[in-house]
Amino acid sequence: MFQGFKEFVLRGNAIDLAVGVVIGAAFSGVVTAIVEDFINPLIGAIFGKPDLTGLWDITLRAGNEAKDIPPSVISVGGVLNAILQFLIIAVALYFVIVLPMNKLAERRKKDEEPEPEAPAEDVRVLQEIRDLLAAQAGSGPGAAPGGTTPGGPTPPRHL
Q: What's the CATH code, domain 2-109?
């Protein structure tokens, strides 16, 4: 039972996934800093608000403070803010991790390409027999002038 688990973990996919999760979590802090310290100030300069979160709010139902009922609000800006962070993370991870790993895998694959194998013994023998039969048919008595080989031109038929 332990051997099967060990094979699963060491297969490579689980290790790649674990590395991806750890790097993604660490990279999330970097992206958050970029968004909060660089992009949000630009948004603030353009739209007059600190970020996209409260920019486009759609109120579906007003709240009632007397009954402690909060308003129903759809925050389009909050969704756009989350999408922006996701896209920054995805693009950065692609160019920092995925693209270099794919190029490395291609390089390894080119290095490991096997040389074409010689045909199997039985295939080689069959090819020799085919060649001998073609040679006999082309030079034997009653053969068409010029002889024919398999795959070669077919002589005209006379009726």
A: 1.10.1200.120
